[in-house]
Amino acid sequence: MGRNEEAYTALDRLRNPKPQSELNKQRVGMELSEIYFSHETGLGPERVSFRELVKEWFCARVKGIARTPHRRIHPLSFSVFLHTMYQCTGINFIMLSLPSLAESDEALSDPLVIALVFSFVRLCATPMYMLIFRKLGQRRTLFFGGLVVSSCHFLTAIVGMAVGLTHEEFVVNRVQLVFMALLLFLVASSWAPAVWIITGEIPCTATRSRDIGISAGVHWLWAVFASVYTPYLIEIEWVRRSAIFLLFAFLSLGSCLFAYYFVPETSRLFLEYIEVIIQESDPRVTREWKPSDTFGWRRDPRTEVKHCRVPRVRKRWTSLRE
């Protein structure tokens, strides 16, 4: 900003190539004001230090974030917790424990065969996310995806308990491998792509790169932690067969609750409106949210625009109300 007169002249020449009425000139000023306020909203709050971030996790006041009746969370904290909930689905443990489980099956004892089979499963699952996202949106995709993943973990644990009740260990291994492949398919078609998309949309423009970098670092930190504890867990038969899947079943239910209470519906929204919806709306009702006005709904001293109301934007953001 700063060169407001030149910006107004350029926008007026673009919108009105011929002399127009005063009303059209006022609309140009309103549009310039809208551009300024959307840019200002996109910048978002000031940078949040790690010390302030820890304070926020303990419900303390964070600089630049006002306290409101609704329980809200800073975008950086939200991104970190979302990646943590993604790891609670048990995806890393499944990927690391597959070779040891498949060793008892001669047909899948080759690590290359295992890698090819389950890579093909993930490859086929990822395009399914685009279809699910169009029907359900981000929020419902995470919620229902977590429910189905939790159910699949429970079934895998039940099958693992059958090892001590039957001598058909070969059959049990095959059934568990099928359920684990189904788990990979479910996570790859719901949580895996949605988490990275949402964490890229939630942060404000001024801090997006830093927030995404920190949340991605937390993601890989959990992956390293999983690679450390997995070799010890798979050495214990009852843990490898059933106990760990029961644990991840309950953790997946926790991921569902996190998606229900904290994840807003960001599909079909501009990035500026995502910043507004985090500050103003309860995530549980964001699917029905639509703005009552635009960013230019006030006087802008930089562009000398009068206090005036601009048309509301429809829910699907495709056109303006006349």
Topology:
Layout: H1 4-15, H2 22-43, H3 50-57, H4 75-87, H5 91-102, H6 111-161, H7 169-188, H8 191-201, H9 208-233, H10 237-262, H11 271-280
Helix pairs in contact: 1-2, 2-11, 4-8, 4-9, 4-10, 5-7, 5-9, 6-7, 6-8, 6-10
Shape: elongated
End-to-end distance, in Å?
A: 29 Å
- Report the strand count: 0
Continuous helix count: 11
Number of domains: 2
At the first level of CATH, the class of the largest domain is Mainly Alpha
Helix content: 55-70%
**CATH architect. name of the largest domain:** Up-down Bundle
**From the helix content, strand content and strand pairing, which structural class follows?**
mainly alpha
Helix and strand string, N-terminal first? HHHHHHHHHHH
Instruction: Please mark out the parts with pLDDT under 50 across 5 or more consecutive residues, or reply none.
Output: 60-71, 295-322
Give the integer mean of the pLDDT values. Answer: 70
Give me the Rg, rounded.
25 Å
Strand content: under 5%
Here the CATH topology of the largest domain equals Growth Hormone, Chain: A
The CATH homologous superfamily of the largest domain is named MFS general substrate transporter like domains
* Biggest sheet overview: none
Protein name: Major facilitator superfamily (MFS) profile domain-containing protein
Transmembrane segments: 76-99, 111-130, 142-165, 177-200, 212-232, 244-263
Membrane topology: Multi-pass membrane protein
Organism: Fusarium oxysporum f. sp. cepae
